[in-house]
């Protein structure tokens, strides 16, 4: 069942179209991530869903109720939607208990019990209730912000870059904790992020936004493995894009003859491989495609290399490879490919 439906949603700021006809269906109980570069329109979309701004065109339907359609604009406080911002937006002069309980309309004893329950849900020690936000770590503050947003039992949670200000290790741990809380509560979630890995790890559905439109919507594995174009492919992670001639399910490419995921297409095309499909070893014997290390930068567990291919189809590409064996510029290597290449049509 669809909980949130966006249809032909548009928002203009002067001559700039922040949103240019966006369509999106969010199933109930799901986690959807909207990912894209800065300025692509993803935060504008979240603000329209939250009710902070009104769309210039299109419709927003939530749980069967029209929230916005040009003539109608339901106020933000009447939408039953929770939101967690990038910095948590906690009240610095209030205690943690007062922050979480802010907006709860209940007797003191009932309110205190609900706050304790929310602290447990967010994985926070109740001893923190008397502290103020500046006495907590960044990850703890984000969990408090989540607990406050959950207090009024929203059916939809909006997460606006909620982990971007955290250190890498803390970001992953906080994201996992937040995901677990939302999943256990059965709350539909819409995450906005510019972090591709975060979107792929968090979501059931990923929507890739570019210049106010969705370039592609699908499961994390689908958008990563079968992106619609090379721009989307490069945004979602490292991609090796090669020229090829495709026929009968195989591509003639600088990396040799490769199986492809489109058996119907015939003709010239670009094909894509992900780095995890490629193995690079010091050249020994036959098998694989020969290449030469043109440039290498040691980065600890991995090395950033540029490999040049010889032959009739001279070509070079970059990728990260494990640093398990020392390689130097000029070394000859053998390149192996696993799986199928994706065809851009």
Automatic annotation (TrEMBL):
Molecular function via GO: ATP binding
InterPro entries for this protein: AAA+_ATPase, ABC_SmlMolc_Importer, ABC_transporter-like_ATP-bd, ABC_transporter-like_CS, ABC_transpr_FbpC, Mo/tungstate-bd_C_term_dom, P-loop_NTPase, Transp-assoc_OB_typ2
Domain of life of the source: Bacteria
Keyword entries, A-Z: ATP-binding, Cell membrane, Ion transport, Iron, Iron transport, Membrane, Nucleotide-binding, Transport
Stretches assigned to coiled coil: none
Matches recorded under CDD domains: ABC_Carb_Solutes_like
SUPFAM superfamilies reported for this sequence: MOP-like (SSF50331), P-loop containing nucleoside triphosphate hydrolases (SSF52540)
Residue ranges annotated for the ABC transporter domain, each copy included: 4-236
Gene3D superfamilies in the record: 2.40.50.450, P-loop containing nucleotide triphosphate hydrolases
PANTHER family hit by this protein: SPERMIDINE/PUTRESCINE IMPORT ATP-BINDING PROTEIN POTA (PTHR42781), SPERMIDINE_PUTRESCINE IMPORT ATP-BINDING PROTEIN POTA (PTHR42781:SF4)
Family listed: Belongs to the ABC transporter superfamily.
Descriptive protein name: ABC transporter ATP-binding protein
């Amino acid at each position: 069942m669809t909980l949130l439906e966006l249809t032909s949603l548009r928002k203009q700021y002067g001559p700039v179209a922040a949103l240019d006809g966006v369509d999106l269906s969010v199933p109930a109980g799901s986690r959807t991530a909207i990912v894209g570069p800065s300025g692509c329109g993803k935060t504008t979309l979240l603000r329209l869903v939250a009710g902070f701004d009104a769309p210039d065109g299109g419709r927003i339907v939530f749980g069967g109720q029209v929230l916005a359609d040009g003539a109608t604009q339901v106020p933000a406080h009447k939408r039953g939607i929770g939101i967690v911002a990038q910095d948590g937006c906690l009240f610095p002069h209030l205690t943690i208990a007062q922050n979480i309980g802010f907006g709860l309309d209940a007797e003191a004893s009932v309110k205190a019990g609900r706050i304790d329950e929310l602290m447990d849900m967010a994985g926070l020690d109740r001893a923190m209730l008397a502290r103020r936000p500046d006495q907590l770590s960044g990850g703890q503050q984000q969990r408090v912000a989540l607990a406050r947003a959950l207090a009024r039992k929203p059916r939809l949670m909006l997460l606006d870059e909620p982990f971007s200000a955290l250190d890498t290790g803390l970001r992953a741990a906080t994201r996992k904790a937040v995901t677990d809380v939302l999943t256990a509560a059965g709350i539909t979630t819409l995450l906005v992020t510019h972090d591709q890995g975060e979107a792929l790890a968090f979501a059931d559905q990923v929507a890739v936004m570019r210049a106010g439109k969705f370039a592609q919507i699908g499961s994390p594995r689908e958008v990563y493995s079968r992106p619609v174009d090379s721009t989307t492919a490069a945004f979602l992670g490292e991609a090796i894009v090669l020229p090829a001639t495709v026929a009968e399910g195989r591509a003639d490419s600088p990396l040799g003859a490769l199986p492809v995921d489109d058996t119907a297409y015939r003709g010239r095309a670009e094909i894509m491989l992900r780095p995890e499909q490629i193995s690079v070893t010091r050249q020994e014997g036959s098998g694989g495609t020969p290449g030469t290390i043109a440039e290498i930068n040691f980065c600890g567990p991995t090395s950033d290399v540029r490999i040049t291919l010889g032959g009739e189809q001279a070509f070079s590409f970059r990728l990260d490879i494990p640093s398990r064996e020392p390689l130097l510029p000029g070394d000859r290597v053998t390149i192996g490919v696993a799986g199928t290449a994706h065809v851009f049509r």
